[in-house]
Specification:
The complex is a heterodimer of chains A (about 450) and B (about 325). In chain A, helix 5 packs parallel to helix 6, helix 6 packs parallel to helix 7 and helix 10 packs parallel to helix 11. The model of chain A has no long low-confidence stretch (mean pLDDT about 95). Chain A folds into three domains: about 55 residues, Electron transport complex subunit B, putative Fe-S cluster (3-methyladenine DNA Glycosylase II, Chain A, domain 3); about 250 residues, Alpha-Beta Barrel (TIM Barrel); about 120 residues, Rossmann fold, CATH 3.40.50.11600. Chain A is globular, with a radius of gyration of 27 Å. Chain A has 16 helices and 17 strands. By secondary structure, chain A is an alpha/beta fold. With about 325 residues, chain B is an alpha/beta fold. Chain B has a single domain, classed as Alpha-Beta Barrel (TIM Barrel), CATH 3.20.20.20. In chain B, strand 4, helix 3 and strand 5 form a beta-alpha-beta unit. The mean pLDDT of chain B is about 95. The chains are: A alpha/beta (about 450), B alpha/beta (about 325). The interface between A and B is large, with 62 and 60 residues.
Chain lengths: ~450, ~325
Amino acid sequence: MALTGLDIFKQLPKKNCKECGAPTCLAFAMSIAAGKAALEQCPYVSEEAKEALGSAAAPPIRLITVGAGAKALAFGDETVIFRHDKTFCHPTGLAITVEDTLTADALAAKVAKVNDLKVERVGQQLAVDLIAVVNASGSPAVFKDAVAKVGSLTELPLVLVSENPEAIAAALPPVAAKKPLVYAATADNYEKMTELAKANACPLAVKGKNLADTADLVEKIAPLYKELVIDTGSREIAQVLADQTQIRRLAIKKKFRPFGYPTITFTSAADPREEVIQASVYVAKFAGIIVLKADEKSQILPLLAWRQNVYTDPQKPIAVEAKIYEIGAVTPQSPVYICTNFALTYFAVEGEVAASKIPAYILPVDTDGTSVLTSWASGKFSADSITAFLESSGIKGKVSHSTCVIPGYTAVLSGKLKEKSSWNVLVGPQEAAGIQAFAKANFA
Amino acid sequence: MAVQIIKERNTGKINTVAIGATKEQGGTRTSIVTVGGDAALPFLHFEGEMPHKPVIAMEVQSRVPAQWNDVLKQPFADVLGDPAAWAKKCVDMYGAELIYLKLSGADPDLENQSPEECVSIVKNVLAAVGVPLIVVGCGNEDKDNVVLPAVAEAAAGENLLIGVAEQENYKSVVAAAMVHKHNVIALTPCDINICKQLNILITEMGLGLDRVVVDPGAGGLGYGIEYTYSILERGRLGALQGDKMLSTPVIATVGYEAWRAKEANAPASDFPAWGEQSERGVLWEAMTATALLQGGVHILVMRHPEAVSLVRKNIGALMVPQAV
């Protein structure tokens, strides 16, 4: 079913105008075939070509945006099944539920609590992404009020959870400019729901009863509206894992169009701890959005960290800022450890230095986030770069001595470093695991 | 357009390794644990069998782990000084399927327990519980090379899992396992090629691959776990494609990795945005485990009973058959 780059190239205008961003039409065609570009990026493509290439030219999973403005969440548009094949691109959106049965005060308190579920980790701002307003009351009027209220209290995009078209018809238009996700179109209501989502230009979730049923329903709706998110209706962990795996495989390997949309999943456990554990599975296995009730910082933080890890680009090492890190209650006599600013190197050193209970300074030299041996081999971790950092970091103003510890694998640098920097150089252990014993032997 | 389910045709599978021996088998265990045998990616039951569920080994140390934080010490406050009682509590109260005994007190920089003392601790733990035992050294190579052979000899017949064998130091522990018929943990920090290499070196010595469990050197949640996760996935894919040297079951020291993270130890007063400390620590450990389970781990070494309980429930839910 998937077209080759040459099949696509034949349909292009062959002007090599570069307006799509690719250097030639052939290169553009190859990008489309690889799912990295969309036909619409070509300003001169003919209607016939669009028709002929049709769905085969679309990326395997459509990019969907919920919300508007700075906090809008774009998700989908993934191109691989395993992160080591390239990378996962759009981190799973986390949605916290708010029920419309809450009193006005409780609702405001709840929204404030969800707004505050954010934290900075390794230089990145992490936060929950959406609030899912649930029509637990069953009343369209109550739902309308609750949605309006939540919308006025948060900048987070909304998910409107109701299978009743009357409730959506009441609640959606006043907040349509915020582009909430409408959840959900089912076999019973899809005509009305699709009409509402389309009229308000908001994304629409499609909820089936299982994989096959969901595909059928998407095929009915897609000709009318394509801003879709899919839910197979499964709620038990093992089945959700199977469904998510099939959806991702079919979208990527077969370009199966009914599954060419991002997914939404719901946790089912009553206990919030069990919920986040359940959610950890869905973060790893392809969920576009996870809706959960857990709302404590201690529950959400591990999930935010796991999501950050899974969606880290394996091709780009994460770096920490090259600056002075103070571990424990440092004094001017505290030892100075040198390492590289590859995050894993730094955190391994930091953990062991902290565990040694001997306060110390750590100076991660900027090696573009590469590890000790890699950066030594490439010359980024050298007597010159270390000397420069000892000067520029300002460590001299913090300590009364001039002794630094370098990683054992780079012992060969010690002579030259001593000469260049006029610091006394101690060769530390090869692995961070040796730091505790080393610190005890040298600094206790 | 009908949904045409994709089921990969895998030619290889994970080895099975049995740990422990009952009376009939020449040991004294009341249960044995078998891991591995997976013929698909983790928990994809629709694609291939997963005959043995992942198991949880609870960690016991041969010295009072003074460095553990209070949240972690509290459930064991009455037994931390007695490895046998600690192990018994893990099995009787918290349902541990195996005990992972770390002979941390053998460290020359700490209590420097003698090989004889270590042997006696192992024997006491064996006497106190009926589940199979994993025994690892303190991490000092020279000391471990004396302690582990002594333990292997004293526990002959018990079919332990002992470790660790590393690329630079594997011969004495592998030899001890061969002579006294135990299984070995092969540790290769985050490197799939060295993992294969070490398995080759170990089998060249004559120990069967059905006696090897690998430890990929887990990165903890938030601290490089994604490297381990991707190595697990790549290793599993290699095994399913028939690479025998990648077909060994996997053990991960989840508790150790999770509880050294700042997020598991810092009080909420230091980091208000992180929330309450004890729940955060428990979930940090539990999620380190459930994240690695999705990559493919067979033995999870864990510490906190509440984390153990959450993960056990997750494993149970993941072992349910799937309709596709």
